[in-house]
Amino acid sequence: MSRPPQRKPIRLTKTTLAEGAVRLAKADPVLGKIHRTFGPPPLLRRPATYATFVHIILEQQVSVESAKATFDRLVGRCQNEVSPRAVRDLGDRRLRDLGFSRQKARYTLALADACLAGDFDIDALTRWDDETVRSQIVSQLGLGNWSADVFLMMALQRPDILPLGDLALVKGIQEIDQTQYESSQQIAERAESWRPLRSIATRMVWQWYVHQRGRDIF
User: Fold this and answer.
1) Can you give the pTM of this predicted structure?
2) Where's the HhH-GPD domain (predicted)?
3) pLDDT tens-digit map of 175-194
């Protein structure tokens, strides 16, 4: 699918993430406390591939650990090549045997079919702006705004994504601020001052959230 020429999207690097974290720490006292305690957050990079979309599908509404266990079984079954063709060849029954729910197997196979038919071009996503990427992702069965946010943040390393559907962000900012926000809109307003570095601020909240629970960050 063709798109008009666009400026090359900005991508976070380890250096720009660390610099951005310092800026945010100076501007927001809560983020400043996190930064003083833990330093800059990790980049949390994933490849911009079909396999990453499958991993994201598996992470929907389950723990990170459970999703990873199922994804690792899939990687082993595909001999480290989780491609649309390899997954389509497995089919629904084998995906279910690996731990996919009926719904997630359906989403995974539908995305494989879209990729194989040329209806969903993952490589092209790297060249498009955030909103074009989002519109393409959410047009696929089983992929909504949270899935788009995770791919934009971790696979495309876009600097200004706020994943309002992410439980760790929502709970984390409520706990850090000691405030019970009543809606996603209130959280978005709280995060407005983090622009244009909301992806970095989100990583900082995640960093605090998982350490409070004695876990390593994703």
Assistant:
1) 0.93
2) 58-210
3) 999 999 999 999 999 999 99
